[in-house]
């Protein structure tokens, strides 16, 4: 995944701002890291696994964006004010991704320590998104 020193794509800058300092909760909280996919080749589960340095036989699951953000954007009766603010930030990020990307999808690669890639095409046709890790034992 490219983190080139050149100025980021406008869509990537928008996503970076929305994801700034957000940590995805799991057994080990992790940040959401923005990326763009270089070149014009399509992103496939196999190319994604290779890009992440995972074995070719790594399990890959594709999910809808709502499946990832649903639990993060749902308020609960026991939430504190800080929890409500966090839910609002995740809801804003979800809305930003929907407004910025065409056909965003979520790939989950691996088991236990799962690489999560949220990716879609921006207005220029570039593949951009976010990458994080969730731990599920």
Look at the helices and sheets and give the structural class.
alpha+beta
State the order of secondary-structure elements, H for helix, E for strand: HEEEHEHHEEE
- Give the overall average pLDDT: 90
Helix fraction by DSSP (H/I, runs of at least 4) = 25-40%
Radius of gyration in whole Å, from Cα? 15 Å
Residue stretches low in confidence (pLDDT < 50, at least 5 long) are: 2-6
Number of strands: 7
Largest sheet geometry: 5 strands, antiparallel
Number of helices: 4
Give the CA-CA distance, first to last residue: 27 Å
**Molecular shape:** globular
Strand order of the largest sheet: 3-7-6-5-4
Share in β-strands = 25-35%
Organism: Candidatus Chloroploca mongolica
Pfam family, one: NuiA
InterPro entries: NucleaseA_inhib-like (IPR012489), NucleaseA_inhib-like_sf (IPR036587)
Protein name: Nuclease A inhibitor family protein
Task: Supply the key terms.
single chain; 137 residues; alpha+beta; five-stranded antiparallel sheet; 4 helices; 29% strand; globular; Nuclease A inhibitor family protein; NucleaseA_inhib-like_sf; NucleaseA_inhib-like
């Amino acid at each position: 995944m490219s983190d080139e020193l050149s100025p980021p794509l406008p869509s990537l800058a928008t996503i970076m701002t929305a994801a700034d300092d957000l940590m995805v909760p799991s057994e080990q909280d992790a940040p959401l890291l923005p990326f763009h996919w270089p070149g014009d080749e399509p992103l496939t589960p196999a190319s994604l696994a290779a890009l992440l340095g995972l074995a070719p036989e790594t399990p890959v699951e594709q999910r809808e964006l709502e499946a990832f953000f649903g639990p993060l954007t749902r308020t609960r009766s026991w939430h504190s004010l800080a929890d409500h603010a966090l839910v609002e930030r995740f809801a804003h990020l979800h809305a930003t991704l929907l407004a910025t990307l065409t056909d965003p999808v979520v790939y989950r690669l691996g088991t236990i320590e799962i690489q999560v890639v949220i990716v879609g095409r921006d207005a220029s046709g570039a593949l951009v998104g976010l990458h994080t890790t969730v731990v599920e034992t």
